[in-house]
Design brief:
Layout (H helix, E strand, L loop, with lengths): L1 H52 L13 H4 L7 E7 L5 E6 L7 H13 L4 E3 L8 E6 L3 E6 L1 H71 L7 H27 L8 E4 H11 L1 H5 L4 E6 L4 E4 L1 H18 L5 E8 L3 E9 L20 H6 L6 H11 L3 E7 L2 E9 L4
Parallel strand pairs: 7-9
Antiparallel strand pairs: 1-2, 1-5, 3-4, 4-5, 6-8, 9-10, 10-12, 11-12
Helix pairs in contact: 1-4, 4-5, 5-10, 6-8, 8-10
């Protein structure tokens, strides 16, 4: 259920975030395109005006008096026109704004004339450059000071980023609220189901105990022996199932206040020794590689049950005359428990399914062995209650159950 909640939250958060980011990008792109179009338009207008009005020069390249060009004013941008002769020398300077032509602009123009041998229109990224220009060699150069445009664009960009950061915080809160609203009915239904399983199991336990006691009191003879044995067998199976259901419900309600500091190494070692006699019946040996004195804050009985389930599962599915390896190691950040057996492989498509309640891959085998598909589900609940992770995989004829716990900070 926690995975459902996380996936729902991430889905809502990502969708709203993508929409907010898309809107911000769209907003900034539109502003950029508007500024770019304005600069390009001014450069083009001035160039066309020069071509129309200055297509005739006298031999000394003295411009004809043209009040239209000299008096042309641009409100939003600082635009300057420099008339050039055949030698590319500046013969006239015109400012199309209220600002005069500064030495900085003149130096920029000379730098452009020095570095460029061919006519070109150049508008670089407006976020970084100070000038854009339209250059016709031996004719004219129109230049636009884009410093103000750059400052406007950067200001809008920084404001957008700031709003995105604030927006992400708001989106996070909204996503949490929406997630809780969406998943609440599911959680309520799931909790009612768990309560029903627990209550039903408790209610069934007493009458089943009475039935089993009465069966034991029945007189057995040749006529009824078969039927009484069937009753005993099925009653035992029902009792085992109820016990497993109760164990499952207990692991779903483990509380942190019941956790204590325990020697995990001793718990695992003890469980491995307990199962040696069961493994011996199948000519299976249990080989341990357990690091000493690994201290872990946990619910001791549950961890003991976890190890029991995994070793018992390895024995049940291990082939005869093989080994089961029980490894427990501690590194800088985590504790890792591995139970490895040689035998029945798990199909890759079943890696997640085997931890589901009542899931059984080989139903006939599990029924004969009195298994109900609850053991691994109980194991997963125990691991999750301890903020750990569990996975299973098969490779080269070996199956590994891997459990990881975060290292406790002392």
């Amino acid at each position: 259920m926690e995975n459902l909640k996380k996936k729902t939250f991430l889905t809502i958060f990502v969708i709203i975030s993508l929409f907010a980011v898309f809107f911000t990008i769209f907003f900034n792109v539109q502003i950029y395109r508007r500024e770019f179009a304005g600069i390009l338009n001014n450069l083009t207008i001035m160039r066309n005006l020069i071509i129309q009005r200055y297509e005739l020069f006298d031999k000394d390249m003295k411009p004809i008096d043209d009040d239209d060009l000299h008096n042309r004013k641009v409100i939003d941008y600082e635009v300057y026109t420099f008339i050039l002769n055949d030698n590319n020398d500046i013969v006239d300077k015109i400012s199309h704004s209220d600002n005069g032509i500064t030495d900085e602009v003149v130096n920029e123009v000379r730098d452009i004339l020095t570095k460029n041998n061919k006519s070109k229109l150049k508008i670089d990224c407006l976020y970084f450059n100070k000038y854009a220009y339209n250059y016709e060699k031996g004719n004219s150069l129109t230049i636009v000071n884009t410093t103000g445009t750059r400052n406007t664009l950067l200001t809008n960009l920084f404001i957008s980023i700031f709003l995105i950061v604030i927006g992400e915080i708001v989106i996070y809160i909204i996503s949490r609220k929406i997630t809780e609203w969406i998943t609440k009915p599911v959680f309520d239904s799931f909790n009612r189901e768990k309560e029903f399983v627990a209550n039903a199991s408790h209610e069934l336990k007493t009458p089943l105990a009475v039935i089993m006691a009465n069966i034991d009191c029945l007189d057995v003879n040749k006529k009824n022996e078969k039927w009484i044995n069937n009753l005993k067998s099925e009653s035992d199976r029902m009792s085992n199932l109820i016990t497993k259901l109760l164990d499952l419900s207990k692991t779903e309600y483990l509380k942190k206040e019941n956790f204590s500091e325990n020697n995990l190494s001793m718990i695992v070692e003890k469980r491995a020794l307990t199962f040696e006699s069961l493994a011996y019946e199948k000519n299976i040996t249990i080989e341990t590689n357990i690091m000493e004195k690994i201290i872990f804050i946990c619910h001791k009985e549950s961890i003991d049950e976890l190890v029991s389930i995994l070793i018992d599962n390895a024995i049940s599915h291990g082939k005869e005359n093989s080994k089961i390896k029980v490894n427990l190691v501690l590194n800088k950040t985590e504790i890792k428990l591995e139970i490895i057996n040689e035998g029945d492989s798990i199909p890759e498509s079943e890696y997640e399914k085997i931890f589901e309640r009542f899931y059984r891959n080989d139903k006939s085998h599990n029924r004969k062995s009195g298994r109900y598909g609850l053991g691994l589900s109980i194991a997963k609940n125990i691991v999750l209650a301890h903020n750990g992770s569990i996975r299973a995989y098969s490779k080269d004829g070996y199956t590994t159950f891997e459990v990881k716990f975060k290292k406790n900070e002392h």
